[in-house]
Design brief:
The structure is a single chain. The chain is about 35% helix and about 20% strand. The longest helix has 13 residues, at about 75-85. It is an alpha/beta fold and about 425 residues long. The chain is built from 15 helices and 19 strands. Strand 17 and strand 18 (about 430) form a beta hairpin. The chain has helices at about 5-15, 20-30, 45-55, 75-85, 100-110, 120-130, 145-150, 150-165, 215-225, 240-250, 265-275, 310-315, 340-345, 375-385, 415-420; strands spanning about 35-40, 65-70, 95, 115-120, 140, 170-175, 190-195, 205-210, 230-235, 255-260, 280-285, 300, 325-335, 360-365, 395-400, 405-410, 425, 430, 430-435.
């Protein structure tokens, strides 16, 4: 199969008609240059921009790891892995990261993946244990390198990069400009592709002023004014998230939470509910500012202003992605001393509502997934035929390796569960329950 035909088939599987200008430029550079630094806003499609040329250069005759992708967070590792698998290239893809069984990972990579994706700490651990051969790894990607090269990761990153003696192509990506690259990365004369200025022309950033130091009532009125839209409320501390969670709960507003003290499985399930509309609001720390797989957002809201300007930029990058528009709001107490990067923003005084209607969706958990050969079509068929759902009552379906999730109209849940649980999907009898 020709490279061009293979690429077209991959794009068809992903539902993409054509690549954007940044992706076209990146594909050409990665194919021809040995060192590439790709700067482009969050949500602009960097993952596909480096995965396509990497897959083009893999050898189907070689049963060893050929490309390594290092990322700063588990969520980004999961997201890239899912995109790579959805491409349906036929190559094995595996991810390694903290929060899951190391022995299970070791078992997974006994049958060598062509591409391995992981966080620095877990990847370094596998290298120390000689879990796979490094001699055939020719391509190294440092995705979101401004985070993965920070002090906390530098020792593991240095160990990994020094161990990859045969790498002849290095690709670094970021949504942040002006980040210094340590000498141990070994770049000589990289080709820099800077698309930061062209990525988010439809982003608006505004202030919302609170008359009181306690900004919760202003937040509530703002959310009611925004209405039925998906958005992230960013906080600097998990304690602030706990406080806001109690407050929103008292107002009857459904929400999800996302921060570093949560177990990995709980963070993943929070994103499932956010993607399918069970929760329209996600309370999050900066952990959600990059590397998570979420739908287009109409807005993000800074309940607490970040300390640094680049953190502000990454948060804002969760909205106005690709060709969509979006707004970032900063809630400020009128007497608050503010950072320079938010001081001169225009004030929005139009968002002042009194009621936010509840979500109409509920997420159900299904105890079977890809390893059981279960597909989205199988699940839809069960809910239509056995559950008697109408098409508009069935929402987004996500199939994971060992389980699946489906959104259904909340009004149908109680009568639906007895009809669909303990039924067979493919050869597996599955349990179906409401996801807490």
């Amino acid at each position: 199969m020709s490279e061009k035909k293979n690429r077209r088939e991959i794009l068809n599987k992903l539902g993409i008609e054509e690549l954007n200008p940044m992706q076209v430029t990146a594909l050409e550079a990665i194919a021809s240059d040995k060192e590439i630094v790709l700067l482009s806003p969050t949500g602009s499609g960097k993952t596909l921009a480096f995965l396509l040329p990497i897959i083009d250069q893999l050898s189907s005759d070689l049963d060893e790891v050929q490309a390594m992708i290092l990322v700063p967070t588990r969520e980004l590792a999961i997201q890239i892995t899912e995109v790579a698998r959805e491409m349906g290239s036929g190559y094995k893809i595996d991810a390694v990261y903290g929060g899951r069984s190391g022995s299970r990972e070791k078992q997974d990579i006994k049958h060598r993946p062509a591409i391995i994706i992981g966080t620095p700490g877990r990847m370094a651990d596998h290298l120390r244990r000689h879990a796979f051969d490094l001699n055939n790894i020719r391509t190294l990607v440092l995705d979101e390198f401004d985070k993965s090269l920070e002090v906390g990761f530098s020792e593991d990153m240095q160990e990994i990069i020094h161990a990859l003696r045969w790498v002849d192509k290095k690709i670094l990506t970021s949504a942040t400009q002006g980040v210094s690259i340590p000498d141990f990365v070994g770049l000589q004369a990289p080709k820099v592709l800077d698309h930061l200025s062209s990525g988010v022309p439809q982003l608006e950033v505004k202030q919302i002023l609170s008359a009181h130091q306690d900004k919760r009532d202003t937040l509530y009125k703002t959310l009611c004014g925004l209405g039925d839209q998906n958005g992230i409320i960013f906080c600097n501390f998990k304690e602030s998230i706990y406080e806001l969670a109690d407050f929103l709960g008292s107002k009857g507003i459904a929400y999800g939470t996302f921060h570093g003290d949560m177990e990995q499985v709980d963070r993943e399930r929070a994103l499932v509910k956010f993607r399918n509309g069970t929760h329209r609001i996600l309370l999050a720390t900066d952990l959600a500012a990059r590397g998570i797989d979420i739908p287009e957002l109409s807005y993000i809201l800074h309940y607490e202003t970040p300390v640094k300007a680049h953190e502000f930029t990454h948060r804002n990058g969760r909205t106005a992605r690709m060709h969509a528009s979006g707004t970032a709001y900063v809630i400020l107490w009128e007497k608050e001393r503010v950072k320079d990067f938010v001081a001169d923003l225009p004030v929005d005084d139009t968002l002042d509502g009194s009621y936010l209607p509840p979500s109409t969706w509920t997420t159900l958990y299904i105890s079977g997934g890809r390893k059981d050969k279960i597909s989205k079509g199988d699940i839809a068929g069960l809910f239509f035929k056995k559950g008697n759902l109408e098409k508009q009552e069935l929402g987004i379906i996500e199939v994971k390796n060992d389980c699946a999730f489906v959104a259904v109209h909340s009004s149908r849940v109680k009568g639906l569960l007895p009809l669909v649980t303990n039924q067979r999907l493919k050869k597996k009898k599955v349990r179906i329950s409401v996801l807490d």
